[in-house]
């Protein structure tokens, strides 16, 4: 089963993708991860991507598409995969359709204000990577895992979150119409709690527990 996860920052795509991948025993394909892997492995496209990153430029579509194509051709993707973070634009989706057959597109829908509250309340431990929300910390400022001080990442500040959402609505949201027109889109309420959202995604994919 080949699946795409769509949704704004903070909608829970990464978390739900991990859970679905574990349930279905398929890999989660994150463009950030495969970009770093391609650069680390020194592949031809990875080296191309590195040259743009080192110059402080955005990696162009054709390089990202080649890296995704390389990754989907690997053996562990033969039984299916979840794409998380790709495609981000309609041109990327059109390119993807030339080398991948997508079975379902899951859209995690969450209101902007809910996302701002979620992300601006997030605190992380830079030492061990643990993540918390201020609503659960009861004023505590130290990581319960390693004791280090928790911080708010710059991209989780409210004004930055609003900017990220604007970019999402402008660039990525048109994908919803693109996949809806192809009968692939399945809209899921991403604000019904983690377990209920997980169950709804499984049901939409025809893979209920």
How much helix is in the residues?
40-55%
Residue ranges: pLDDT <50 for 5 or more in a row? none
Q: Which strand-content bin applies to the residues? A: 15-25%
Helix/strand order, N-terminal first: EHEHHHEHEHEEHEHHEH
How many DSSP-defined strands?
A: 8
Distance between the termini: 16 Å
User: Based on CA inertia axes, which overall geometry fits?
Assistant: globular
| Continuous helix count | 10
Strand order of the largest sheet: 2-3-1-4-8
Query: How would you classify the helix and strand content by structural class?
Result: alpha/beta
In angstroms, what is the radius of gyration?
18 Å
Q: For the report, how would you describe the main beta sheet?
A: 5 strands, parallel
Q: Describe the oligomeric state of these chains in a short phrase.
A: single chain
Mean pLDDT metric? 91
Structural summary, described in words:
The protein is of the alpha/beta class. Helix content is 47%, strand content 15%. It is built from 10 helices and 8 strands. The protein has helices at residues 13-24, 31-41, 44-54, 61-72, 90-96, 112-120, 134-137, 158-172, 174-180, 194-204, and strands at 2-6, 28-30, 81-84, 104-109, 122-125, 131-133, 150-151, 185-189. The strands form 2 sheets. The protein has a 5-stranded parallel β-sheet with strand order 2-3-1-4-8, sandwiched between helices. Helix 2 packs across helix 4 (61-72). It starts with a strand and ends in a 5-residue tail after the last helix.
